[in-house]
């Protein structure tokens, strides 16, 4: 059943593509709990929808998300944060969504907004996107994976500088440093580019795409030897899928593959 949301917009603008737009304009998409819960629900619904092959997550041209909601957080004490596992619900996104998620980042992506963008599988942005981990200015540190994901993406020295100074960085810098896969001139081009890529991914075998996401993510957790072994097992496993036969036969016959798992 279609669900209506208050703080996000959900649509399917291209074949096989689910689009989630953060939509809390008055607070520059600050990520308060009701928004995160809607985001989780919508992402899970797309993940379970067999007609969807890839997802795009974006905000507005002004803000992807200006961070966790500072007003919501400001009065929490340690017992509130630790006892109620504050931020726990955020970790559902990268852990439970099996389909690829592309973030299209325009405007501010600060603190938790930057972290949310980095949780996605592929990060696209426009040149004027404004990234940063400004938590240090609020007397805290990143809490949704920022210190780990930013450091892996751009290296220790740069990540340390950014996290300890709270300095922002541009979409152009995010691309130059390897955090973003692509940088676009305008926000429109950025969202279109993300939708194009999602549509292309959605045109392939769902089984192969799922395995592709899984193996790349394993590289973040495993050493090289275990990682390569893990990849090999999954590669071998795909010879048990109809789509391996379909894909390779289509090549030999110079035809377009008609995937079973689509
Ligand atoms: C709550 C926020 C907010 C936030 C903006 N707003 N960011 N509310 N939490 N993170 C609200 C403002 O209070 C204001 O509401 C409205 O959005 C518009 O913002 P302005 O500041 O008036 O806009 P502008 O002057 O254009 O400045 C934009 C900005 C600034 C530079 C992005 O809003 C800003 O610095 N925001 C905070 C960024 C930040 O520190 N993020 C990290 C949060 S900590 P009113 O009602 O006044 O109109 C974090 C920790 C994550 O994310 C840890 C794990 C999750």
Automatic annotation (TrEMBL):
**CDD domains recorded:** crotonase-like
Instruction: Write the record's keywords in alphabetical order, separated by commas.
Output: Fatty acid metabolism, Lipid metabolism, Lyase, Virulence
Per its UniProt record, what PANTHER family does this chain match? ENOYL-COA HYDRATASE, MITOCHONDRIAL, ENOYL-COA HYDRATASE-RELATED
Pfam families listed in its UniProt record: ECH_1
Which InterPro entries would you find in this protein's record? ClpP/crotonase-like_dom_sf, Enoyl-CoA_hyd/isom_CS, Enoyl-CoA_hydra/iso, Enoyl-CoA_hydra_C
Q: Which example biological process does GO assign this protein?
A: fatty acid beta-oxidation
Which GO cellular component term is one of those annotated?
mitochondrion
**UniProt EC number:** 4.2.1.17
Work out whether the entry's keyword set contains tRNA processing: no
Question: Does the UniProt entry include the keyword Lipid metabolism?
Answer: yes
Q: What is this protein called?
A: Probable enoyl-CoA hydratase, mitochondrial
Provide the family line: Belongs to the enoyl-CoA hydratase/isomerase family.
